[in-house]
Protein backbone atom coordinates (compact mmCIF):
# COMPACT_ATOMS: atom_id res chain seq x y z
CA UNK A 1 0.00 0.00 0.00
CA UNK A 2 1.18 3.48 -0.87
CA UNK A 3 -0.01 5.85 1.83
CA UNK A 4 -0.66 9.36 0.50
CA UNK A 5 -3.12 10.57 3.12
CA UNK A 6 -0.63 12.18 5.46
CA UNK A 7 -2.63 15.40 5.80
CA UNK A 8 -5.29 13.33 7.57
CA UNK A 9 -2.78 11.56 9.78
CA UNK A 10 0.74 10.34 9.23
CA UNK A 11 0.74 6.57 9.13
CA UNK A 12 4.46 5.99 9.22
CA UNK A 13 5.70 6.97 12.68
CA UNK A 14 9.37 6.81 13.64
CA UNK A 15 10.17 3.62 15.57
CA UNK A 16 11.24 5.72 18.56
CA UNK A 17 7.68 7.05 18.85
CA UNK A 18 6.20 3.56 19.05
CA UNK A 19 8.81 2.47 21.58
CA UNK A 20 8.20 5.56 23.72
CA UNK A 21 4.47 4.82 23.88
CA UNK A 22 5.11 1.19 24.81
CA UNK A 23 7.58 2.21 27.50
CA UNK A 24 5.17 4.83 28.85
CA UNK A 25 2.39 2.27 29.06
CA UNK A 26 4.67 0.08 31.11
CA UNK A 27 5.97 2.74 33.47
CA UNK A 28 3.83 5.85 33.76
CA UNK A 29 1.38 6.66 36.52
CA UNK A 30 -0.98 9.62 36.46
CA UNK A 31 0.77 12.95 36.14
CA UNK A 32 0.18 15.35 39.01
CA UNK A 33 -1.90 12.93 41.04
CA UNK A 34 0.80 11.91 43.53
CA UNK A 35 4.53 12.15 44.16
CA UNK A 36 5.51 8.49 43.81
CA UNK A 37 8.03 7.59 41.16
CA UNK A 38 5.50 6.38 38.61
CA UNK A 39 3.44 9.58 38.85
CA UNK A 40 6.61 11.67 38.74
CA UNK A 41 7.76 9.81 35.63
CA UNK A 42 4.57 10.88 33.89
CA UNK A 43 4.89 14.47 35.13
CA UNK A 44 8.51 14.67 34.00
CA UNK A 45 7.78 13.35 30.52
CA UNK A 46 4.86 15.75 30.13
CA UNK A 47 6.83 18.75 31.35
CA UNK A 48 9.78 17.88 29.10
CA UNK A 49 7.37 17.76 26.17
CA UNK A 50 6.02 21.18 27.06
CA UNK A 51 9.59 22.49 26.96
CA UNK A 52 10.29 20.90 23.59
CA UNK A 53 7.13 22.35 22.07
CA UNK A 54 7.85 25.78 23.55
CA UNK A 55 11.28 25.66 21.89
CA UNK A 56 9.87 24.46 18.58
CA UNK A 57 7.24 27.19 18.36
CA UNK A 58 9.15 29.91 20.20
CA UNK A 59 6.52 30.07 22.93
CA UNK A 60 7.92 32.17 25.76
CA UNK A 61 6.94 29.81 28.58
CA UNK A 62 6.70 26.00 28.74
CA UNK A 63 3.88 26.26 31.26
CA UNK A 64 1.88 28.06 28.58
CA UNK A 65 1.90 24.91 26.44
CA UNK A 66 -1.46 23.22 27.05
CA UNK A 67 -2.21 19.67 25.99
CA UNK A 68 -5.45 18.67 24.29
CA UNK A 69 -6.65 15.67 22.31
CA UNK A 70 -6.19 17.36 18.93
CA UNK A 71 -6.35 20.68 17.06
CA UNK A 72 -10.13 20.76 17.17
CA UNK A 73 -10.17 20.74 20.95
CA UNK A 74 -7.38 23.33 21.05
CA UNK A 75 -9.26 25.62 18.66
CA UNK A 76 -12.48 25.26 20.63
CA UNK A 77 -10.60 26.24 23.78
CA UNK A 78 -8.91 29.18 22.07
CA UNK A 79 -12.00 30.55 20.34
CA UNK A 80 -14.45 30.04 23.20
CA UNK A 81 -11.88 31.28 25.69
CA UNK A 82 -10.93 34.43 23.82
CA UNK A 83 -14.21 35.70 22.41
CA UNK A 84 -17.04 37.29 24.36
CA UNK A 85 -20.59 37.96 23.20
CA UNK A 86 -20.62 40.82 20.73
CA UNK A 87 -16.99 40.38 19.71
CA UNK A 88 -16.43 40.42 15.97
CA UNK A 89 -13.90 37.99 14.51
CA UNK A 90 -12.18 37.66 11.14
CA UNK A 91 -11.25 34.37 9.52
CA UNK A 92 -10.76 33.03 6.00
CA UNK A 93 -12.42 30.78 3.45
CA UNK A 94 -9.43 28.44 3.77
CA UNK A 95 -10.41 27.11 7.17
CA UNK A 96 -11.20 23.62 8.32
CA UNK A 97 -14.44 22.97 10.20
CA UNK A 98 -12.37 22.84 13.39
CA UNK A 99 -12.14 26.62 13.02
CA UNK A 100 -15.39 27.25 11.17
CA UNK A 101 -17.81 25.52 13.49
CA UNK A 102 -16.56 27.17 16.70
CA UNK A 103 -16.76 30.49 14.83
CA UNK A 104 -20.25 29.84 13.47
CA UNK A 105 -21.35 28.98 16.99
CA UNK A 106 -19.92 32.26 18.24
CA UNK A 107 -21.43 34.22 15.32
CA UNK A 108 -20.42 37.73 14.24
CA UNK A 109 -17.70 36.47 11.91
CA UNK A 110 -16.51 37.70 8.52
CA UNK A 111 -14.37 35.70 6.14
CA UNK A 112 -11.55 36.81 3.88
CA UNK A 113 -12.61 35.28 0.56
CA UNK A 114 -10.51 32.79 -1.36
CA UNK A 115 -10.03 33.05 -5.10
CA UNK A 116 -10.35 30.28 -7.68
CA UNK A 117 -6.84 29.11 -6.83
CA UNK A 118 -7.58 29.18 -3.09
CA UNK A 119 -5.41 32.22 -2.36
CA UNK A 120 -6.44 35.20 -0.24
CA UNK A 121 -5.90 38.93 -0.62
CA UNK A 122 -4.12 40.14 2.51
CA UNK A 123 -5.59 43.63 2.25
CA UNK A 124 -8.98 42.04 2.96
CA UNK A 125 -8.00 41.37 6.58
CA UNK A 126 -7.56 45.08 7.20
CA UNK A 127 -10.71 45.97 5.27
CA UNK A 128 -12.82 43.67 7.45
CA UNK A 129 -11.68 45.14 10.77
CA UNK A 130 -14.48 46.84 12.74
CA UNK A 131 -14.48 48.73 16.01
CA UNK A 132 -15.55 45.58 17.89
CA UNK A 133 -13.20 43.16 16.13
CA UNK A 134 -11.45 41.08 18.76
CA UNK A 135 -9.45 38.48 16.85
CA UNK A 136 -8.19 37.00 13.62
CA UNK A 137 -8.36 33.21 13.44
CA UNK A 138 -6.69 31.55 10.49
CA UNK A 139 -4.92 28.49 9.25
CA UNK A 140 -1.22 28.41 8.43
CA UNK A 141 -1.84 26.18 5.42
CA UNK A 142 -4.95 24.88 3.73
CA UNK A 143 -5.61 21.18 4.26
CA UNK A 144 -7.27 21.13 0.83
CA UNK A 145 -4.98 23.04 -1.52
CA UNK A 146 -1.72 23.10 0.44
CA UNK A 147 -1.54 26.86 -0.05
CA UNK A 148 0.47 28.46 2.76
CA UNK A 149 -0.80 31.70 4.27
CA UNK A 150 1.71 34.37 5.20
CA UNK A 151 1.01 34.26 8.92
CA UNK A 152 3.83 36.68 9.71
CA UNK A 153 2.04 39.25 7.54
CA UNK A 154 -1.37 38.51 9.05
CA UNK A 155 0.17 38.59 12.53
CA UNK A 156 1.55 42.02 11.77
CA UNK A 157 -1.92 43.22 10.77
CA UNK A 158 -3.41 41.75 13.97
CA UNK A 159 -0.67 43.24 16.13
CA UNK A 160 -0.92 46.68 14.52
CA UNK A 161 -4.68 46.75 15.15
CA UNK A 162 -4.63 45.34 18.68
CA UNK A 163 -6.30 42.06 17.69
CA UNK A 164 -5.67 38.61 19.09
CA UNK A 165 -4.10 36.30 16.52
CA UNK A 166 -5.09 32.63 16.73
CA UNK A 167 -3.37 30.25 14.29
CA UNK A 168 -4.33 26.73 13.26
CA UNK A 169 -1.03 24.99 12.53
CA UNK A 170 -2.55 21.55 11.93
CA UNK A 171 -0.92 21.16 8.53
CA UNK A 172 2.39 22.84 9.24
CA UNK A 173 3.60 22.08 12.78
CA UNK A 174 6.83 20.14 12.58
CA UNK A 175 7.43 20.95 8.92
CA UNK A 176 7.26 24.73 8.60
CA UNK A 177 9.01 27.14 10.96
CA UNK A 178 6.60 28.75 13.42
CA UNK A 179 7.85 31.56 15.62
CA UNK A 180 5.13 32.85 17.92
CA UNK A 181 7.12 35.89 18.96
CA UNK A 182 8.24 37.01 15.52
CA UNK A 183 4.88 36.23 13.90
CA UNK A 184 2.86 37.93 16.67
CA UNK A 185 0.89 34.75 17.34
CA UNK A 186 -1.15 34.90 20.53
CA UNK A 187 -2.48 31.35 20.43
CA UNK A 188 -1.03 28.57 18.32
CA UNK A 189 -3.14 25.43 17.96
CA UNK A 190 -1.53 22.18 16.79
CA UNK A 191 -2.20 18.48 16.51
CA UNK A 192 0.33 15.80 17.33
CA UNK A 193 -0.64 13.08 14.90
CA UNK A 194 0.02 14.74 11.54
CA UNK A 195 3.37 16.25 10.63
CA UNK A 196 4.53 16.19 14.25
CA UNK A 197 4.55 12.38 13.76
CA UNK A 198 3.09 11.63 17.19
CA UNK A 199 0.17 9.45 18.25
CA UNK A 200 -3.47 10.32 17.63
CA UNK A 201 -5.05 11.89 20.70
CA UNK A 202 -2.23 14.39 21.17
CA UNK A 203 -2.27 18.08 20.42
CA UNK A 204 -2.46 21.37 22.17
CA UNK A 205 -2.19 25.10 22.17
CA UNK A 206 0.58 27.50 23.03
CA UNK A 207 -0.55 30.73 24.64
CA UNK A 208 1.55 33.89 24.60
CA UNK A 209 2.29 35.57 27.90
CA UNK A 210 -0.42 37.98 28.96
CA UNK A 211 -3.16 36.32 26.92
CA UNK A 212 -6.02 35.27 29.18
CA UNK A 213 -8.27 32.49 27.88
CA UNK A 214 -11.33 31.47 29.88
CA UNK A 215 -11.35 27.73 30.66
CA UNK A 216 -13.50 25.75 28.26
CA UNK A 217 -13.62 22.57 30.29
CA UNK A 218 -13.21 22.32 34.04
CA UNK A 219 -12.62 19.42 36.37
CA UNK A 220 -9.93 17.42 38.12
CA UNK A 221 -6.47 18.94 38.18
CA UNK A 222 -4.59 17.30 41.05
CA UNK A 223 -4.05 20.77 42.55
CA UNK A 224 -6.13 23.39 44.36
CA UNK A 225 -8.79 20.76 45.02
CA UNK A 226 -11.07 22.83 47.23
CA UNK A 227 -11.40 25.70 44.76
CA UNK A 228 -14.85 25.66 43.21
CA UNK A 229 -13.55 27.04 39.94
CA UNK A 230 -10.69 25.98 37.68
CA UNK A 231 -7.25 27.16 38.90
CA UNK A 232 -6.20 30.37 37.17
CA UNK A 233 -2.61 29.43 36.42
CA UNK A 234 -1.53 27.95 33.09
CA UNK A 235 -1.35 25.15 32.02
CA UNK A 236 -3.82 23.85 34.65
CA UNK A 237 -6.22 26.65 33.77
CA UNK A 238 -7.01 24.95 30.46
CA UNK A 239 -6.33 21.30 31.34
CA UNK A 240 -8.92 19.27 33.24
CA UNK A 241 -8.85 15.51 33.63
CA UNK A 242 -6.05 13.01 33.15
CA UNK A 243 -3.74 13.98 30.33
CA UNK A 244 -2.88 11.52 27.56
CA UNK A 245 0.51 10.81 29.12
CA UNK A 246 1.16 7.76 26.99
CA UNK A 247 0.48 9.68 23.81
CA UNK A 248 2.46 12.68 24.98
CA UNK A 249 5.44 10.38 25.61
CA UNK A 250 5.19 9.35 21.96
CA UNK A 251 4.91 12.97 20.87
CA UNK A 252 8.00 13.77 22.91
CA UNK A 253 9.98 11.11 21.06
CA UNK A 254 8.62 12.43 17.77
CA UNK A 255 9.86 15.92 18.64
CA UNK A 256 13.32 14.46 19.28
CA UNK A 257 13.18 12.73 15.91
CA UNK A 258 12.15 15.93 14.12
CA UNK A 259 14.92 17.88 15.86
CA UNK A 260 17.44 15.26 14.79
CA UNK A 261 16.35 15.05 11.14
CA UNK A 262 15.63 18.76 10.93
CA UNK A 263 12.48 20.64 9.94
CA UNK A 264 14.13 22.06 6.83
CA UNK A 265 15.23 18.65 5.66
CA UNK A 266 11.77 17.16 6.21
CA UNK A 267 10.05 20.06 4.45
CA UNK A 268 12.38 19.98 1.46
CA UNK A 269 11.84 16.26 0.99
CA UNK A 270 8.07 16.57 1.24
CA UNK A 271 7.93 19.57 -1.07
CA UNK A 272 10.13 17.78 -3.59
CA UNK A 273 7.78 14.78 -3.59
CA UNK A 274 4.65 16.94 -3.86
CA UNK A 275 6.15 19.00 -6.69
CA UNK A 276 7.19 15.85 -8.53
CA UNK A 277 3.63 14.55 -8.25
CA UNK A 278 2.15 17.88 -9.34
CA UNK A 279 4.39 18.08 -12.40
CA UNK A 280 3.53 14.50 -13.24
CA UNK A 281 -0.24 14.94 -13.16
CA UNK A 282 -0.79 18.60 -14.11
CA UNK A 283 -0.31 17.95 -17.82
CA UNK A 284 -2.53 14.88 -18.07
CA UNK A 285 -5.67 15.49 -20.17
CA UNK A 286 -8.76 15.45 -18.00
CA UNK A 287 -6.92 16.22 -14.75
CA UNK A 288 -7.72 19.43 -12.86
CA UNK A 289 -5.38 20.42 -10.03
CA UNK A 290 -6.46 22.94 -7.37
CA UNK A 291 -4.31 25.48 -5.57
CA UNK A 292 -1.54 27.96 -6.18
CA UNK A 293 1.49 26.19 -7.62
CA UNK A 294 3.22 29.38 -8.74
CA UNK A 295 5.22 29.12 -5.52
CA UNK A 296 7.19 26.21 -4.11
CA UNK A 297 6.48 27.34 -0.54
CA UNK A 298 3.57 24.98 -0.15
CA UNK A 299 2.35 22.32 2.24
CA UNK A 300 2.91 18.91 0.61
CA UNK A 301 -0.66 18.52 -0.64
CA UNK A 302 -1.97 18.13 -4.20
CA UNK A 303 -5.73 17.94 -4.68
CA UNK A 304 -7.21 17.12 -8.05
CA UNK A 305 -10.11 15.76 -10.02
CA UNK A 306 -10.15 13.43 -12.98
CA UNK A 307 -12.60 14.28 -15.77
CA UNK A 308 -16.06 14.61 -14.20
CA UNK A 309 -15.64 11.56 -12.00
CA UNK A 310 -16.88 11.67 -8.44
CA UNK A 311 -13.80 12.11 -6.26
CA UNK A 312 -15.04 9.31 -3.98
CA UNK A 313 -15.07 6.93 -6.92
CA UNK A 314 -11.56 7.89 -8.02
CA UNK A 315 -10.23 7.52 -4.48
CA UNK A 316 -11.88 4.13 -4.19
CA UNK A 317 -10.40 2.93 -7.49
CA UNK A 318 -6.96 4.14 -6.37
CA UNK A 319 -7.29 2.19 -3.12
CA UNK A 320 -8.81 -0.98 -4.54
CA UNK A 321 -6.96 -1.33 -7.84
CA UNK A 322 -3.69 0.45 -7.20
CA UNK A 323 -3.23 0.19 -3.44
CA UNK A 324 -2.94 3.97 -3.08
CA UNK A 325 -4.52 5.65 -0.05
CA UNK A 326 -5.94 9.15 -0.68
CA UNK A 327 -8.72 11.30 0.72
CA UNK A 328 -11.78 12.16 -1.41
CA UNK A 329 -14.73 14.43 -0.67
CA UNK A 330 -14.91 17.75 1.10
CA UNK A 331 -12.00 17.52 3.56
CA UNK A 332 -13.99 19.39 6.25
CA UNK A 333 -13.30 22.55 4.22
CA UNK A 334 -16.73 23.64 2.91
CA UNK A 335 -15.98 27.29 2.24
CA UNK A 336 -12.88 26.52 0.21
CA UNK A 337 -14.65 23.87 -1.86
CA UNK A 338 -17.28 26.50 -2.67
CA UNK A 339 -14.54 28.91 -3.71
CA UNK A 340 -12.90 26.28 -5.89
CA UNK A 341 -16.26 25.25 -7.39
CA UNK A 342 -15.86 21.65 -6.25
CA UNK A 343 -18.84 21.18 -3.96
CA UNK A 344 -20.45 18.62 -6.29
CA UNK A 345 -17.37 16.67 -7.29
CA UNK A 346 -15.25 17.04 -4.16
CA UNK A 347 -11.58 16.44 -4.83
CA UNK A 348 -9.00 13.68 -4.45
CA UNK A 349 -6.29 14.78 -2.08
CA UNK A 350 -2.75 13.40 -2.23
CA UNK A 351 -0.62 14.37 0.76
CA UNK A 352 2.97 13.42 1.32
CA UNK A 353 5.30 12.47 4.13
CA UNK A 354 9.08 12.54 3.99
CA UNK A 355 8.85 8.77 4.42
CA UNK A 356 7.27 8.52 0.95
CA UNK A 357 9.55 7.82 -1.98
CA UNK A 358 9.92 9.10 -5.53
CA UNK A 359 9.01 5.62 -6.74
CA UNK A 360 5.70 5.80 -4.85
CA UNK A 361 5.01 9.20 -6.37
CA UNK A 362 5.69 7.87 -9.87
CA UNK A 363 3.35 4.95 -9.27
CA UNK A 364 0.62 7.38 -8.21
CA UNK A 365 1.20 9.51 -11.33
CA UNK A 366 0.92 6.42 -13.53
CA UNK A 367 -2.31 5.43 -11.79
CA UNK A 368 -3.88 8.84 -12.42
CA UNK A 369 -2.80 8.67 -16.05
CA UNK A 370 -4.61 5.34 -16.42
CA UNK A 371 -7.74 6.50 -14.62
CA UNK A 372 -7.88 9.59 -16.84
CA UNK A 373 -7.81 7.58 -20.09
CA UNK B 1 7.34 5.48 63.07
CA UNK B 2 7.67 8.48 60.75
CA UNK B 3 10.68 10.63 61.61
CA UNK B 4 10.13 14.37 61.36
CA UNK B 5 12.26 17.49 61.58
CA UNK B 6 12.04 21.13 60.67
CA UNK B 7 12.36 21.45 56.91
CA UNK B 8 11.77 23.90 54.09
CA UNK B 9 8.80 23.33 51.81
CA UNK B 10 8.00 25.08 48.56
CA UNK B 11 4.48 24.80 47.13
CA UNK B 12 3.21 25.41 43.62
CA UNK B 13 0.02 26.41 41.89
CA UNK B 14 0.43 23.76 39.19
CA UNK B 15 2.11 20.42 38.56
CA UNK B 16 4.05 22.12 35.77
CA UNK B 17 5.49 24.53 38.34
CA UNK B 18 6.61 21.62 40.50
CA UNK B 19 8.23 19.87 37.56
CA UNK B 20 10.05 23.01 36.49
CA UNK B 21 11.39 23.29 40.05
CA UNK B 22 12.58 19.69 40.16
CA UNK B 23 14.27 19.98 36.80
CA UNK B 24 16.09 23.16 37.75
CA UNK B 25 17.20 21.84 41.14
CA UNK B 26 18.54 18.66 39.57
CA UNK B 27 20.40 20.64 36.92
CA UNK B 28 21.99 22.86 39.55
CA UNK B 29 22.67 20.07 42.03
CA UNK B 30 20.43 21.54 44.73
CA UNK B 31 19.26 18.67 46.97
CA UNK B 32 15.63 17.97 47.82
CA UNK B 33 12.68 16.10 46.40
CA UNK B 34 9.00 16.36 45.55
CA UNK B 35 6.51 15.06 48.11
CA UNK B 36 2.71 15.11 48.32
CA UNK B 37 1.88 18.46 49.88
CA UNK B 38 1.36 18.09 53.67
CA UNK B 39 -2.24 18.65 54.64
CA UNK B 40 -1.12 20.93 57.44
CA UNK B 41 -0.23 23.40 54.69
CA UNK B 42 -3.33 22.85 52.58
CA UNK B 43 -6.07 20.30 52.18
CA UNK B 44 -5.67 20.82 48.45
CA UNK B 45 -3.70 18.16 46.63
CA UNK B 46 -0.49 18.77 44.74
CA UNK B 47 3.22 18.49 45.30
CA UNK B 48 5.74 20.35 47.41
CA UNK B 49 9.50 20.54 47.12
CA UNK B 50 11.04 19.39 50.42
CA UNK B 51 14.55 20.53 51.27
CA UNK B 52 16.78 21.29 54.22
CA UNK B 53 16.53 24.75 55.76
CA UNK B 54 19.98 25.78 54.59
CA UNK B 55 18.83 25.51 50.97
CA UNK B 56 16.50 28.50 51.30
CA UNK B 57 18.74 31.02 49.57
CA UNK B 58 19.51 28.69 46.66
CA UNK B 59 15.84 27.86 46.28
CA UNK B 60 14.75 31.48 46.38
CA UNK B 61 17.13 32.19 43.52
CA UNK B 62 16.00 29.16 41.55
CA UNK B 63 12.32 29.98 41.92
CA UNK B 64 12.56 33.67 41.10
CA UNK B 65 10.76 33.22 37.75
CA UNK B 66 8.80 30.06 38.54
CA UNK B 67 5.13 29.70 39.36
CA UNK B 68 5.66 29.22 43.10
CA UNK B 69 2.87 29.51 45.65
CA UNK B 70 4.73 29.84 48.98
CA UNK B 71 7.74 28.90 51.11
CA UNK B 72 7.10 27.18 54.45
CA UNK B 73 9.22 26.01 57.35
CA UNK B 74 7.49 22.99 58.74
CA UNK B 75 8.17 19.93 60.86
CA UNK B 76 7.62 17.10 58.46
**What percent of residues of chain B are in strands?**
25-35%
Identify the biggest protein-protein contact and residues per side.
A-B, 25 and 20 residues
What's the CATH C level of the largest domain in chain A? Alpha Beta
Residue ranges of chain B: pLDDT <50 for 5 or more in a row? Answer: none
In the CATH hierarchy, what is the class of chain B? Answer: Alpha Beta
Span between termini of chain B: 13 Å
Return the string of H and E elements of chain A. Answer: EHHEHEHEHEHEEEHHEEHEHEH
What's the number of structural domains of chain A?
2
What is the number of strand segments of chain B?
4
- How many helical elements of chain B? 2
Structural class of chain B: alpha+beta
Which percent band covers the strand fraction of chain A?
5-15%
CATH topology assignment of the largest domain in chain A: Aspartate Aminotransferase, domain 2
Biggest beta sheet attributes of chain B: 4 strands, antiparallel
Portion of residues in helices of chain A?
A: 25-40%
Q: Work out the oligomeric state of the chains in this entry.
A: heterodimer
Order of helices and strands of chain B: EHEEHE
Report the mean per-residue pLDDT of chain A as an integer. Answer: 97
CATH architecture of the largest domain in chain A: 3-Layer(aba) Sandwich
Task: Label the structural class of chain A.
Answer: alpha/beta
What gross morphology of chain B would you assign?
globular
